[in-house]
Design a protein that fits this description.
This protein is an alpha/beta fold and 607 residues long. The chain is built from 20 helices and 10 strands. The chain has a 6-stranded mixed beta sheet with strand order 6-7-8-3-9-10, sandwiched between helices. Strands 2-1-4-5 form a 4-stranded antiparallel beta sheet, covered by helices on one side. Helix 2 packs parallel to helix 5.
């Protein structure tokens, strides 16, 4: 039975210990006290039976007094050592948890910094899901390994002393114990390796199962599930995903169950040798007190070795996920970018030079040899049919995706030269998908919990037409959003959420403003209000305005119309209307509906 490791365990443990040395050296002191007390603690129960039996075999004169002394001494020593080891362990636990939490911070920073393309790639999470989960719990992954490393040396010291002690009695008893240890550890490794090979399948099954779990609990799906009678469909799919998830775990448990028979055989051999040899030696004259002491020592050693096996197997098995975590954290997923800092005190000029782009793992090009310049201070409207790549254009110019061919320049500088965080800091963007967080209104606008400029928050809320509503709340801008964290949280309408997102972009005050369908959920009056204040909102910065509603284009200097073949028309509103091309047709058709809608409204008003 060959025990092999598919990863560098020593390097992994070294990394964990170096982190302790860096974050909290006092943990080593707690470890030393715990190891000393925990290593000595089991010996009291080994010696007690011999002392009592020896005392009972003496005369009755000093028997009761000595027995009371032995029992009192036993309880006193076990109380002191038991209290110390428990107290130190409990005192160290939250500090070990803090080590894991620091890793969580690093991991979150990594995840939110990796190239955005990975966030839209399910296989990325399937490959790295278990590595990310290494920070999820007190009982496994990083913290689990820390706890085992804290506890195991005491077990090793006690076990070694007992091994020498029992080995001097009979080597075959020791061999039976060691055989059981080796086989049990081998079974654990075989089971783990089988499970590790299925880590991507497990991550995929877990992700799919969690999707339906979230769907059944998310308030946002409640209306559609009821109105469209999706209940049975969702529950049936949920049940199917749970079944697939359970089946994967059943395969692992079946493997463990079959291998367990070998462990049972070695357990029977161990117990047979232990009791058989002890009984034989007692029959040949071994004192009963020694029999009791050796039996207690063997039982203690058996339990200690079982614990040792479990701990070492745990460290080896979970260490593999910790190693994967380190690999994930050290791998470059494009989160750094270049070294150039953000452009300060200047608005931006964006130039697409022969840009071609297709999404990862696809063959269809969204753009092919696209050339487009957005001049400094210019307001550009991007319009076109659905699927023409309007939102993709935003992802490219903000650096969320890298071009497949060609290059993008910002103020003449290749976009790849910018540090990613510095690059993101230059843009204020309102995306189509509005994400409201369960924080206060002020925190949602400022996107931070520290050093919030409250006057600026109020100013931008006023500019987008939200201040009147926010000021009506008892807590004002400190009102919590959503009801997930606080049952008294407020829920905005879709249009109000969109206004909040615009306020967020204005608060950031980036060098360039990008509004991707910023008024899609607004009513006509609210939309008109945003349009009228558009120039004031962007403060003379370079601005890109994406919309299906062509009425917005009159506020812009230039218009770029995209279709499935890329950039089809470019120019001012007047220039494109004179061409009488696709833009002219789209504007005329929309204008017709607006006019008819206006006439209908007037008729209803008269009625």
């Amino acid at each position: 039975m060959k025990l092999t490791l598919s990863y560098p365990l020593g390097k992994t443990l070294k990394g964990l210990l170096e982190n302790v040395n860096k974050q909290n050296k006092k943990i080593f002191l707690y470890f030393l006290v715990y190891t000393t007390t925990a290593a000595m603690y089991p010996f009291f129960s080994v010696v007690l039976p011999k002392l009592l039996i020896d005392e009972l075999s003496l005369g009755q004169e000093a028997q009761l007094e000595n027995i009371l002394k032995i029992i009192l001494g036993y309880f006193l020593l076990t109380s002191i050592f038991g209290f110390l080891k428990t107290f130190v362990a409990n005192y160290a636990d939250p500090r070990i948890t803090k080590l894991r939490i620091d890793y969580i911070k690093d991991m979150f920073d990594k995840i939110v910094s990796v190239e955005y393309k990975y966030m839209e790639d399910a296989s990325f999470f399937e490959k790295n899901g278990r590595a990310m989960e290494a920070t999820n719990s007190n009982d496994n992954g990083i913290e689990g390994v820390y706890h085992k490393l804290f506890e195991t040396p005491a077990v090793i010291i006690t076990a070694l002393v007992l091994i020498v002690f029992i080995g001097r009695l009979n080597v075959f008893i020791l061999m039976g114990l060691i055989l059981n240890v080796i086989v049990t550890m081998w079974i654990s490794r075989k089971t783990h390796n089988f499970q590790y090979k299925k880590k991507e399948e497990l991550s995929r099954a877990h992700r799919r199962k969690d999707y339906y779990y979230t769907t059944t609990y998310d308030f946002g799906y409640g209306k559609d599930i009821r109105i469209y009678n999706l209940r049975d469909r969702v529950l049936n799919n949920y049940a199917r995903e749970i079944e697939g998830y359970v089946n994967l775990h059943r395969q692992i448990k079946d493997k463990e169950y079959k291998l367990g028979f070998l462990g049972l055989v070695t357990l029977l051999i161990r117990d047979g040798l232990t009791y058989g040899i002890l009984i034989m030696k007692t029959a040949k004259g071994l004192p009963i007190s020694d029999f009791s002491m050796y039996l207690s020592a063997i039982l203690n050693l058996s339990q200690l070795m079982k614990t040792l096996i479990e701990n070492i197997s745990f460290i080896i098995n979970e260490g593999q996920y910790v190693y994967d975590f380190y690999v994930f954290m050290n791998k470059d997923y494009g989160e750094k970018g270049g070294a150039r800092k953000a452009i300060k005190d200047d608005t931006l000029e964006i130039e697409f030079k022969n840009v071609s782009f297709k999404y990862p793992n696809t063959d269809k090009y969204i753009f092919k040899n696209l050339n487009l310049r957005i001049n400094k201070g210019e307001k550009l409207a991007i319009v076109g049919i659905n699927g023409a790549g309007k939102s993709t254009l935003v992802k490219l110019m903000t650096g969320l995706f890298d071009v497949t061919e060609g290059e993008i320049l910002i103020n003449g500088i290749p976009i790849k030269e910018f540090d990613k965080k510095e690059l993101y800091s230059m843009f204020s963007v309102v995306f189509q998908d509005i994400n409201i967080l369960a924080y206060t209104i002020a925190e949602n606008v400022a996107c931070t919990s520290e050093n919030i400029d409250k006057e600026k928050v109020i100013d931008v809320l006023d500019k987008v037409g939200l201040w009147k509503k926010v000021s009506s709340f008892k807590e004002g801008i400190n009102q919590i959003m959503l009801k997930i964290i606080d049952e008294n949280g407020t829920e905005f309408s879709g249009g109000e959420n969109q206004k909040l997102a615009i306020a967020r972009a204005l608060y950031k005050d980036g060098d360039m403003v990008i509004l991707d369908e910023p008024t899609a959920a607004l009513d006509a009056l609210a939309e008109a209000e945003i349009y009228e204040n558009f120039s004031k909102l962007v403060k003379g910065k370079t601005a890109v305005f994406i919309s299906h509603r062509l009425a917005s284009t009159k506020f812009c200097d230039k218009i770029a119309l995209f279709d499935k073949d890329g950039l089809k028309e470019y120019g001012s509103h007047e220039e494109l209307m004179k061409k009488r091309g696709s833009y002219y047709k789209m504007f005329t058709i929309q204008g017709k509906y607006y006019n008819e809608g206006g006439k209908t409204y007037e008729k209803l008003k008269e009625a």
